[in-house]
Specification:
Elements (H helix, E strand, L loop, with lengths): L1 E11 L3 E4 H5 L6 H8 L3 E4 L5 H16 L8 E5 L10 H9 L6 E5 L5 H14 L5 E9 L9 H4 L4 E12 L3 E9 L7 E3 L18 E3 L1 H23 L8 E4 L4 H11 L10 H4 L6 H11 L8 E8 L3 E8 L1
Parallel strand pairs: 4-5, 4-6, 11-12
Antiparallel strand pairs: 1-7, 2-3, 6-7, 8-13, 9-10, 12-13
Bound molecules: oxa(dethia)-CoA.
Oxa(dethia)-CoA binds next to helix 2, helix 6, helix 7 and strand 12.
Length: 324
């Protein structure tokens, strides 16, 4: 049986750092409020690079770690909701920037903060069915373009960043063990960002706020519930107990959400990865960025089982279990 084995990880964040103290000068907030309510202390902001620039840099690092060349990749799937253009896709820009062979398939998936796990699910299916042999899966977002920097209830939460993995079709026990992706479009108004496109002259009514809007309190509650369910699905499908899990990598939105999930699962602190203090919520970039750090820091090694879980606009939520 073919499995999608993770043979390389990579990430990239822009150089510019915006601290909580910097934000105190932009909106009425405080380092104390942001760090106690969210766990975030700073975030990275793209200044002279686009979404696809960040994606390509993360992907290049992942390909280097995997020891694969641009001619080896036959599928690129990018999870993002902040592409620089309506089309072409960010995946096509990545293909062009990295010189990945002509004829490879390249497309984006839109699932907000669940974008990476949605992209992983798609690529995993291509690999298991034999439709692709080596896939590049990227999660990237540049929320600094869509947050309202005058709205303290949202602008303090997000940062820019990208992460990537290379998947290889291999026989054996290592690789993606399961993916579960879900959505509930009835609650789209909990968290959304309208189109940045100008209105058409034929439109009768154009409702556009352009900026990201979020009902934080409700989103928080649904996030804890659905991420708990998604983890349950991953564990049940694979017959896992908490002891079998080497590391849980949750979407990095709020430390209080992560702690609530950790307590539900009765996992010790050192089995739950967090880096949102340094990056904030990087949306689709959050999970692969954390994975790359965990791999490079030696927090995980070959054979370890990792659980990923995410939640985002849509509403969407997802989980995945992987044996490294
Ligand atoms: O990645 C996608 C998924 N996103 C999430 O999962 C986010 C989920 N939601 C959250 O993380 C939290 O709800 C927030 C961090 C967004 C907000 O935290 P909260 O503890 O739910 O605060 P709140 O919205 O209930 O606001 C409490 C108070 C309010 O003031 P009053 O009405 O009590 O006087 C807000 O106006 O805090 C005020 N406030 C702030 N004060 C200082 C809101 N934002 C700020 C701020 N600085 N940045």
């Amino acid at each position: 049986m073919l499995r999608a084995r993770l043979i390389g990880t990579g990430s990239h964040v822009p150089k510019k750092i915006l601290t909580n103290h910097d934000l105190e000068k932009l909106v009425e907030t405080s380092d104390d409020w942001i760090s106690t309510r969210t766990g975030i202390r700073q975030r990275h902001i793209a200044v002279d690079e686009t979404t696809s620039d960040m994606a390509a840099k993360a992907a290049k690092n992942a390909m280097k770690a995997a020891g694969v060349s641009p001619r080896d990749i036959d599928l690129i799937v990018v999870g993002t909701v902040t592409p620089e253009m309506c089309f072409p896709s960010t995946a096509c820009f990545v293909q062009s920037q990295l010189g990945i062979k002509s004829g490879a398939a390249a497309f984006d998936v839109s699932a907000a903060c669940s974008g990476f796990l949605y992209a992983l699910d798609v690529a995993d299916r291509y690999i298991r069915t034999g439709a692709a042999a080596k896939a590049l899966v990227i999660g990237v977002d540049r929320f600094s373009r869509i947050v309202d920097w005058k709205d303290r209830s949202t602008c303090v939460l997000f940062g820019d960043g990208a992460g990537a993995v290379v998947l290889s079709a291999e026989k054996g026990t290592k690789g993606v063990l399961s993916c579960h992706i879900h959505s509930d479009g009835r609650h789209w108004e909990m968290l959304y960002a309208d189109s940045p496109c100008p209105p058409s002259p034929f439109e009768e009514k154009h409702i556009s706020s352009r900026y990201l809007k979020m009902n934080g309190n409700e989103t928080f509650k649904i996030a804890v519930r659905t991420m708990g369910q998604a983890i349950g699905e991953a564990m049940e499908t694979n017959g896992l107990t908490p002891e079998d899990i080497s590391l849980l990598i949750p979407h990095q939105a709020n430390l209080r959400i992560i702690n609530a999930i950790r307590d539900r699962l009765k996992l010790p602190d050192d089995k739950v990865y967090t880096n949102l203090d340094r990056y904030g919520n990087t949306s689709a970039g959050s999970i692969p960025l954390a994975l790359d750090e965990a791999v490079r820091d030696g927090r995980v090694k070959g054979g370890d089982i990792i659980l990923f879980v995410s939640f985002g606009g849509g509403l969407t939520w997802a989980s995945s279990a992987v044996r490294l």
